[in-house]
Amino acid sequence: VHAENLAKLGYVALAADVYGQGKRTRHGPDAGVYMNQLNADRALLRDRLAAALAALAGFDRVDPAKLAAIGFCFGGKCVLDMARSGLSILGGVSFHGVYDAPDYASVSPIAARLLVCHGWEDPIAPPEKA
Fold first, then answer.
1. I need a labelling partner for 11 at 20 to 30 A (CA). Which of 42, 55, 65, 67 fits?
2. How many Å separate Cα 61 from the centre of its chain?
3. Is the peptide bond before 123 cis (omega within 30 degrees of 0)?
């Protein structure tokens, strides 16, 4: 839905399938199975994010020097990981993303401009985890 709304505004948008091969989850006890697999292998997540960004940059109407990322919850974590790993995004917006740092070295300083929108009482990512 968000990618479609961005496209209506004239932007090229890509909704990345970071789980791979059409894997989908539903609400319930197994809802986080694929997310947990990528949380356990953050380098694999970084590589999938890099591949998605490269695919986006390859479209004719895209200026690869003007890429950005938006994500919600796990997607918000992905935005933060893109910035931490030095992927070529100018900016990113993380909505109630998860803060935990990856187990690989982060770039310093982070070049991307970030807007982190987060509820103070979010039980998944409390302020002390920031």
1. 42
2. 22
3. no
Closest CA to 53 of 7, 99, 10, 86: 86
Q: What is the DSSP string of 62-125?
A: --TTS-EEEEETHHHHHHHHHHHTT-S-SEEEEES---PPPSSPPPSS--SEEEEE--TT-SSS
The C-alpha R_g of the chain, in whole angstroms, comes to 15
What band does 99 get if pLDDT is binned at 50, 70 and 90? Answer: confident
Confidence class for position 130, pLDDT limits 50, 70, 90: low
CA nearest 51: which of 98, 90, 19, 73? 19
Q: 20 or 43: which carries more pLDDT confidence? A: 43
Which residues have a Cβ under 8 Å from the Cβ of 6 and sit 6 or more positions away? 13
